[in-house]
Amino acid sequence: MPAPAETAVLFDVDGTLVDAVANQRGIWSTWAVRFGLDGDEAYSVALRTRPVETAAHFLPQADRADALEYFQRLEDDDVREGQYESFAGVDRLLHALEPGRWALVTANLRRRVEGRFRRLDLPVPLDLPVPQVIVDAEIPALSDAATDVLRFVG
Question: Contact, 151 vs 135, CB < 8 A?
Fold first, then answer.
């Protein structure tokens, strides 16, 4: 009889472990103002798309690189200066889990997630034996053939 597979717990981050809704709304509102757009409309589209797709939805090709660079700066600033909280009980839950047996699945960049976790005094997951999953902003949304698009880092 084969050995049982090791079990790992995978968590989404924003909206599951960390309450960052106000931050994201603020980032997209600031982004929209710079490009003469409605903040609520930009946020509405951004909820369903990656930043590159949001920029493409609203802006001509010539403005998209600047728009994406600006969005990245806003996100990085938010890691350092934003006000956000983990949801009730998340701290206890993550500290209770065995290190190396849980990971994060997110559309955000690893450095940003780790920065927020450190600011919130949440443990940063260790590498899982197989696999640790952190999906970055360049990976398509986890809707179509998710296992085919995951990039494993560790």
Answer: yes
